[in-house]
## 1
Amino acid sequence: MRDAVGVGILGFGTIGTGVAKVLLRNREVIARRLGFPLQLVRIADLDTRRDRGVDLEDIRFDDDAAGLISDPRVDIVIELIGGYDAARRMILDAIAKGKHVVTANKALLALHGEEIFGAAAKKGVDVAFEASVGGGIPILRSLREGLAANHIDSLYGILNGTTNYVLTEMEQTGEPFEAVLKRAQDLGYAEADPTFDVDGIDAAHKLTLLVAMAFGAQLTYKDIPTEGIRNVAPVDIEFAEEFGYRIKLLGIAKSHTDPAGKPRIEARVHPTMVPADHLLSKVDGAMNAVAVRGDAVGTTLHYGAGAGELPTASAVVGDLMEIAREIQRGQAGRVAPLSYMPEELHAVDLVPLGELRARTYLRFTALDRPGVLSHITGALGQAGIGIESVLQKGRGLASESVPVLVLTHPAAEADVRAAIDEIDRLPDVTGPTRLIRIEEELSQ
Amino acid sequence: MRDAVGVGILGFGTIGTGVAKVLLRNREVIARRLGFPLQLVRIADLDTRRDRGVDLEDIRFDDDAAGLISDPRVDIVIELIGGYDAARRMILDAIAKGKHVVTANKALLALHGEEIFGAAAKKGVDVAFEASVGGGIPILRSLREGLAANHIDSLYGILNGTTNYVLTEMEQTGEPFEAVLKRAQDLGYAEADPTFDVDGIDAAHKLTLLVAMAFGAQLTYKDIPTEGIRNVAPVDIEFAEEFGYRIKLLGIAKSHTDPAGKPRIEARVHPTMVPADHLLSKVDGAMNAVAVRGDAVGTTLHYGAGAGELPTASAVVGDLMEIAREIQRGQAGRVAPLSYMPEELHAVDLVPLGELRARTYLRFTALDRPGVLSHITGALGQAGIGIESVLQKGRGLASESVPVLVLTHPAAEADVRAAIDEIDRLPDVTGPTRLIRIEEELSQ
């Protein structure tokens, strides 16, 4: 057997602990598959006291991140600190010292990817990040290699476990968002500050990386129109069920060409009505899945745990193994560019949301008075928006607001938005109208 | 851009046509991702007359397979002839001439894999075969790379599209196997001689390759206990539905350790009752899917088209791209060993079917006479097999046979088999008893 490749972990939290466990527990099978061992030589974390339940014999564990990065025994630095500033600095420092990097930090890559991958390419080292999208699901690798012969037409991902858990619970209990979120927080399934998850930001981070991988498109997550699940109400879920849909928070990206033949990308994150018979609508609880449509392969679906100590560690260690193999072959530095090497990322225009054309679900909030329905449907009709179904839920006093649910025929979103603006100004309409897009292509 | 890597196709049938289409149609995106073009320089097939709808300009097309293999412009030979003898000879010939090989020929690899991979390793060339399992689904690559950090605990695959199509149709129409098969043949979804598909042999071929990849286990498909779907009756499907299952033809493999600590493998292909809420049971029609459980990642599922011109071509061209990249780096010869290189395949003991322990569905065929049920249940009781449910379907004349359906508590299959042998000798039992295994682990 050849010499070991040395590994250091920056950040000994949940994922770091999982990585250490997998490296130690599966040491033999990893060495057998590689032909040499992966050796965990060092761990750095500010908290050096807490017992993580990992046998640290022969592993140096202290709070000296800079020392770990400089340690000549460390060939690959695993960044699991999270966040922006410190993580970015340490990754750039590791790259500058010629170390390869494995990270699960989608937030960082979705904002500073260009800088980090640029530095790595210049220095000839790898930055691998399979764990940053879909946890243990080998989805980035599948896009980079298994599906590499395809033009990717579209991808649809349930990319955030917390929101999928909350939506699944809302469906099963009929309870409103706030109550389910509170319980998820009590159970540790949602963070104390759930913003990144429930507002779709985490999903947008991941979609940024998927779009780079699938289309070579250079975006930051700030470019992606993003809406979370805070406004999804039990009545929306009931309506969806009645009409053969389930509501999922999807990251969606599609490849387009504008009339002049120039490539454009559609990319967005929002609650979506998915046909109930589509596999994506059967992905429950905290699980993730990505459906990819390629021009040759058709639709593939990649499903698994999107987060958690060991699933995420599975992806991190998979990346370690790939880089270590390349190091032993004297070929490292080509493993995991943000796009296919040597294809470079390029700027692309995004399709504005107003140009989307789809059936749309609208929930109006209006006083339960005679004539209200005709005002709403009249405004839609004047905007040229056909109505497929209308459902007025509940009957209260004339002074109470009730939801009016409308399913439109396919229409341009700009037209729908214009009609909503007008309807929201009607005197009988008492709250902002909610819109949930229906993803019709998924029914094919 | 660097020089092109040259490709030759042996066998210009459905898949060969698909490969040519993908190479030509996606020429630009492939070249951009690789940094150099893949050039289709030659095609050989006995039938040189039929128009495949592919623009063959600049591509030599004749019936000279030996010439193609020897052509110095051909770096990678794609074997798409199928079958055993000629394909084996040509692959070995190509290897001997230092050519890399891509094949979709699971039948050949599941029987002669050892010889072929041995010859390739000796010569230092690659034999890649992603297309041989799961069509366009990058499942072998995921096992080899994305999930490489895991001990694989189990895998469950819907590996044959024809049988999944037939079972789905039987469910939806209530028609018997023969009628549905006949229609599938008329529609071109099943071969004129459907033996390989409906008797589970094709699934066993694929399971052989999955087991090699996941466990490093050296088997041929003949080692794998295999049962097809010919004996699945509409009444079985009805019963399954009533009890919350769907019947799927699964290839199943699990990793075990015998009491002395020696590794053993469970591998089998048969109709299986799958819990109706499991994703595998939602895989309909001709689609394939493989669920993999790893010790770190938990369960992942990989879904897509398991056959067809373009999906299979997607996998073939993905392999071509991987080998071509290695050729350009001067590193070819390590891409696609049957197992992880340099781990070698090793012989393993198979767990005998008699040792399986599971809830089991039994369909007895008996005359509808008083006492029959008590004879059957009595024999089961004497063998120590607990009964969860009994259903006697239909009521005919005393001289007519009716199905008696039994769901057992978990029991060792050897005991169940012994009881069946005894029951099948009862005078009132008029036909062979059918057994369908229930895969309980899938409900977790």
Note: Chain B touches chain A through 59 residues (CB under 8 Å).
## 2
Amino acid sequence: MTRQSFVVDTSASPHALLRPLPLQGVTIRDRFWAPRIATNTQVTLPSQYAHCEETERIANFRRAAGTEAGDFVGLFFNDSDVYKWLEAVGWNDAISDSPGLSIIRDKVVADIVAAQRTDGYLNSYFTKERSDDRWTNFDLHEMYCAGHFFQAAIAIYRTSGARTALDAACKMADHIDATFGPASDGKRPITDGHPEVELALVELYRVTKEQRYLTLADFMVSVRGANQLGNQKFDNLYYQDHKPYRDLHDVVGHAVRMLYLAAGATDLWLETGEPALKAAIDAQWQNLTQKRMYVSGGVGSRWHGEAIGDDYELPNPTAYTETCAAIASVMWNWRLLQGTGDAKYADLMEWTLYNGVMPGLSVSGNEYFYQNPLENDGTHRRSAWFGCACCPPNVARLLAQLGSYVASVDSQSLWIHTYMQGDIDAAGSGLDAAVSVTTEYPWDNTVRITVTRGGQWTLRARVPSWASGATVTVGGVRQNAEPNTYVALRRAWQVGDEVVLVFPMQPRLIMAHPSVINNNGRVAVARGPLLYCIEQVDQSMPVASLRIDPRTQWAEATGPVALGAHTLLHAKGYSTSTPEDALYAPWRHDAGQPVRLTLVPYHLWANRAAGAMTVWIPLA
Amino acid sequence: MTRQSFVVDTSASPHALLRPLPLQGVTIRDRFWAPRIATNTQVTLPSQYAHCEETERIANFRRAAGTEAGDFVGLFFNDSDVYKWLEAVGWNDAISDSPGLSIIRDKVVADIVAAQRTDGYLNSYFTKERSDDRWTNFDLHEMYCAGHFFQAAIAIYRTSGARTALDAACKMADHIDATFGPASDGKRPITDGHPEVELALVELYRVTKEQRYLTLADFMVSVRGANQLGNQKFDNLYYQDHKPYRDLHDVVGHAVRMLYLAAGATDLWLETGEPALKAAIDAQWQNLTQKRMYVSGGVGSRWHGEAIGDDYELPNPTAYTETCAAIASVMWNWRLLQGTGDAKYADLMEWTLYNGVMPGLSVSGNEYFYQNPLENDGTHRRSAWFGCACCPPNVARLLAQLGSYVASVDSQSLWIHTYMQGDIDAAGSGLDAAVSVTTEYPWDNTVRITVTRGGQWTLRARVPSWASGATVTVGGVRQNAEPNTYVALRRAWQVGDEVVLVFPMQPRLIMAHPSVINNNGRVAVARGPLLYCIEQVDQSMPVASLRIDPRTQWAEATGPVALGAHTLLHAKGYSTSTPEDALYAPWRHDAGQPVRLTLVPYHLWANRAAGAMTVWIPLA
């Protein structure tokens, strides 16, 4: 039997409505994602390894192990970048044949494991020079690094069967468990400064069945709000430590920490079903989506504290919207989807993937955005690496595990959450069903699902929230499909049976709540699951001068192939200017010069000549 | 003969086209400024004195003098707040009879002078505990404080004749002159971190005729760009020390420092006439007004470094636009006006006074803005005082000296720069001419100038830049008047002769250069010399939801008397909203609900219930 690698293994989670498909169950063969995934394997992962070596991130482990001379170099949480890269290589192993990467993987695992102390402690920053300082400052990411190590170890174990990293992870987890926990158990009841270990501990529980890890995850979530952090640089809210998690009804503070924490709490809920936990999670999600999320799905309004802003505080040029925060949102929504089967989570997951995460990666696969502003003067460009390099390997691991987000099962049904041309085989999840998907989604409106292994089961296919007028045709009968639901088609499927979904994809204008003051008088443009923008390179007049006619006739065109097959939009607009380039001038009724606007998918911006860009376009 | 107190005494400046009127030459009796000036005397100055005592700003001098126990308290430049307050009290003495303030003034002068060291050095921060540190860090405002002391001393001398402070100022200036200057003279060639002393030294030269002070001012301007600051927290550009001043062709860095420096350089040019200096000043002014100035006249786009931004970087909610920067702009434009007689400087001075400076002061006269954003959610409110309290006494001294900005003379002409009901008598400036002005400007469009002492001279009356269709009527003959010029009327004036100026004041819409991306699709509203805004307290719907119909019929009304007589504007607008308060929703053609917008003068905002405000209103 081939190995079945689950990314987030809710197969046995008592409160998960859905069970995951293993990575091997989904083959992606489309023109959007397949090239991106191939680039991930061929360009992104090798180049990230080179960066990790060049910046001495891996050497730090060898130095901690004493196998190489020298002191620790870099930021105190640099281990985590290596772990995330390693996790990416782990998942990648399930979907591609890259022996080179597997060799490096094993070498890096050996370097890491050699740095582990005999008591299980593992962190290259706190091992040699600073070994006396370990576990003294919980804003220095020791738990965070541990969490990423657990995730990497699990990925390698699930895809290759190799236990070296997993055993080391369990040793570290055992060390943490022995040290931290309720004071009533004689342990240290500390709050971790950067959540991440929570979801990793739940997954470690899932892979090992060690109840202690789940209990520890619950402790980590539950200890918050008791002022047990200490040594902190920011206020309690920044760390989501200003109140108990179950009383936290909005998303606050550092965006990535908030969303990793919410994802971890959701993982916990999938195991425990605790209503109070779920009520807090639901309130947080509601607050995020109704008050504090960018139209791109990005999260984080402030550079200061990399923070989520107040309600409706969503400035565009200064948006922080860290790539990692969008990834964390995908992770959170995925867990909520597995728990509930509610299409709204799949919808936001897909939207955030296309419009919140993918802008963070160049088409070339080797340059990254840390921040993803929705408006820029052309000075914001991707970098090959960062001193704080959390985002690059985070994108890499998401792309490597992408197949696992395509579909789920329950005992009766195959759920398809997002559409990518390719094959879905649910056998590895225990449902004897398989289909093939033919589509040019997200560019084209038609998705054709062909049964490749039949039987009595239900096909549940998601209808996106934006797909007004969607239809589903099966057995020659066409019916309307309600947006933001799953259409459920139960029958005795025969091989070759076909289901055709049509999701109308005319360009649409989006307005923001009027309290988002900076978006007033402006619209964003979307088509299907993609957000669009105007980028200087495509326009005849300065982006800053452009306005859009909301009654425009739309024209669609194929964009430059260098950016991958994609659809451009053309709209009627106007360019405004002032006489003699004056800074201020009397407003004129005839200020607009008609122009043809060209809109490109937002995730593709900044892949060509540097220039201004805006998502929110002033109305003419 | 009554004393004649000049504020900026260019009477004998060889390169000044205009000569100033003494404060006593102008009597303001209008409904806009007269109440503000009375409040300054009765509320602002006494309450600021109380703040200076409560915060131990004045005690610091007594402690430095050894007449009171205790250490220095507060910020290292707190002396300057006392000096600015003292300067205000000085000028106030010329325009009002406030014996109480005069008594305090003399007491404070005595405290200050007692703190002066025998070598002339005067700075309460560097006298006792830190006497060894004096003149070691030129980012600690010793020169800046000295400059403000010089200005205060000059004000007191010019208005009261008392020499105590002036003599102390000269001792300090002599000490500086003996210590700092070209290395070739055996002196220390340092760059001062916070310009201000330059203009004060030129004025000290004007009042004492000591050439050394002018030479020292020239040195202070000329040393910049030679990397002689040291100890700096920011980069050279922040301090305008990245290049020689004469090569500086844009306005950069810390806004107040930049504009005080430009004002000082202009003072220098008024004395020296140096073309290279004037060329740099002209380029800076051009850059400011064409690229880097808010529509309010405010300057400073960034909170970080209290800095002027890049070209077209003029965000509204995060505008810094420090009240002091607007005051510095008024000071700079006044000096340029005296040098050139060019109406554009008077125009910007007046505009900045109404719309850049006055928002910084509450109608009550005892609360202040440090920052003046052009858009706010209602959380930005005035404070009674600040830890860094530069703005409050700066507003106070400007109001006390306001009369001096109304008019100037040359050998043949009386120049009227701005219109306030009252009397102008040029006798103290050597021109045998006097007029009386009757007007409700800035609210009403008509200005009536009646000759009260005749003779053969030219009346030069400014026509504001916005006054398209302006007319001037004299001797029953009406003619058109060109905006942004002075109409020149030369004749043998008889007492009772009348000149009537009419400046059309219909509300007008202003657009910004399209490169100011945040103002695209928005307009600002002005009427006469006043910028307007919409404030929540006056609206039926949330400010964030409001849009303005650019083709509106305007209605004017009288606003609530508690804010002083003023004109409100009503316009047709729309309120947009999203269904069910969604964060994002499909744009609808019919999204606007018609509403009646109420606009209030921007300088009056935040004097009533807290609420959102915006100057730039989205177009419907």
Note: Residues 409-502 of chain A form a domain with the Immunoglobulin-like fold (CATH 2.60.40.1180).
